[in-house]
Amino acid sequence: QVHLAESGGGSVSPGGSLRLSCVVSGDTYRHDCMVWSRQAPGKERERVASIDTDGSTYYEAAVKGRFFISKDNAKKTLYLQMNSLQPDDTAIYYCAAYPCGTWWERTGVWGQGTQVTVSS
After folding, report:
1. pLDDT of 95-108, one tens digit each?
2. How far from chain centre, in Å, is Cα 36?
3. Helix, strand or coil for residue 38?
4. Rounded to whole angstroms, how far apart are CA atoms 15 and 26?
């Protein structure tokens, strides 16, 4: 069974930075790909960034160039470096592990989320 725990959220001013972490534990068999998603109040959850087994990454257009996803396989930890944060980035951020090549929203296992608030 896969377990994930996000951390690193907080409240920052526009233009600030945060680094989110997601520690993965348990059996990760067939759950080798990772994704960060977020959900803002009144909005549906959306994918932010993902990373596959060879390090290839995907970024939503709204965050490309500002956010960077990475992982440390030895530490079983996924990261999301968020720079130049904007109020529209305010959301609960979730990480998930899923079998590569599958629809992650159906097959993925995710954590409880960490709140990111960007306000002036």
Report:
1. 999 998 898 889 99
2. 2
3. strand
4. 36
